[in-house]
Amino acid sequence: MRVQGLELDGFSLGGVETCVMLPEWSLAVDVGRAPRGLLSLSHLALTHAHMDHAGGLPYHLALRQLYGVAAPAVYVPAQIARDLEALLAAWDKLQRYESQLRVCPVEVGGRYPLRRDLELVPFRTYHVVPSFGYSVVETRRKLKPELACKPGPELAALKAEGVEITNARQLTRLSVTGDTLVEVLERQPQILESDVLVLECTFLDAKKRLSDSRAGGHVHLDELRAQLSLFRGGALVLSHVSQLYKPAEVDAVLAPLAAALPFELWAMPTEEGQPPRRLNAPEP
Ligand SMILES: [Zn+2]
Ligand SMILES: [Zn+2]
User: Fold this and answer.
1) Domain map of the chain by residue range?
2) Which ligand is nearest to the Cα of residue 16, counting in written order?
3) 2-278 belongs to which homologous superfamily?
4) pTM strictly above 0.85
């Protein structure tokens, strides 16, 4: 699906499988049960180690070896890196071969280059196990206006002398929360500026009590509703919806809400091959 000009693939069903793929950036956030689409991506960022987000990792690494595809860089919250490596080492022992894993432990405050102009930026989230969300920040450079009339060779000479000839602007193109309490919106307000925000929203109505949702470290629509107006980006994509709700029920709850919003509201597909759903009408 193309959201705000960004190709965003994958699917998310709470407790079952979550994998968000950004093929243009060769990046996925969470591996779910290792869909084949991951094989062509070079960067995998894990939000936390619950099975529905990270369980497919050993299988995915084995598939890469089978097909002769280089191991990806796997970014994980630093607190869980050691346990994850131990898990994979145990699996190597069972299978009697060595998987080629590159675990990159990440910290909040760090910035990890994905490409010359793109960085992966972890942020804190609030779940029942150690967890991070991830933003992708793009740096766009534009020639300084006062240099606009200078000929190319002159600009090249200035650059060679070490003169900065461009102004840089940083844009948060995407943030993905992974599982979290709704407090992430007030405690990490920078994510409200993202062009696209993929936000966990597991429960939608009285089928789950708010107190039970909070005890599991999840967002309930009853508490998200009042905070929707804080979002200043272009598209909010709700993910991790519980299997308590069929897609038609999700649409019935969200469409009336979406109609009043000044930004796009989407629901992540809940399984592979399902179409993405935008819940408010496209601009005429
Ligand atoms: Zn989950
Ligand atoms: Zn979880």
Assistant:
1) 2-278
2) 1
3) Ribonuclease Z/Hydroxyacylglutathione hydrolase-like (3.60.15.10)
4) yes
| Positive/negative CA dihedral, 188, 127, 241, 40 | positive
What mean pLDDT do residues 262-273 have?
91
The alpha carbon of 278 and the centre of ligand 2 are apart by a number of angstroms equal to 25
Least distant ligand from the CA of 52 = 1
Distance 136 CA to ligand 2 centre (A): 21
Question: Among all ligands shown, which has an atom nearest to the Cα of 53?
Answer: 1
**What per-residue confidence (pLDDT) applies to 234?**
96
Cα of 212 vs centre of ligand 2, distance in Å, is 14
Of 228, 280, 234, 233, nearest to 259 by C-alpha is 280
